[in-house]
């Protein structure tokens, strides 16, 4: 099935260096993205309490800026999910921008999923 690109922007109140650690390391991702995360080279293995386990590969990154992952099920496709730190040049406000792909019928569910994840991240960072 064809997926569509979706993008979200979340204002964050924290240092970009700390936020990047929560985006790019297994330890950081296990704090908010999954119940458990294991990193083996460029492969990240995520698991959740429900027993679900998924593998994602880190396909691009720029330190202190962004990470891009591709789920194993999306191998060989253009689909990915990316987390990008954006700092406004004028105000110095920091945002976390999310790019993801989902099926058209799942747009609302995808948005709620990311909102919930980012709320968890904000709580861990004390950035609410």
From TrEMBL:
Ranges for domain START-like: 2-127
A Pfam family hit: START_2
InterPro entries assigned to the protein according to its UniProt record, in alphabetical order: START-like_dom_sf (IPR023393), START_2 (IPR045736)
Coiled coil segments of this chain: none
Superkingdom of the source species: Bacteria
Protein name: START-like domain-containing protein
Organism, as annotated: Halpernia humi
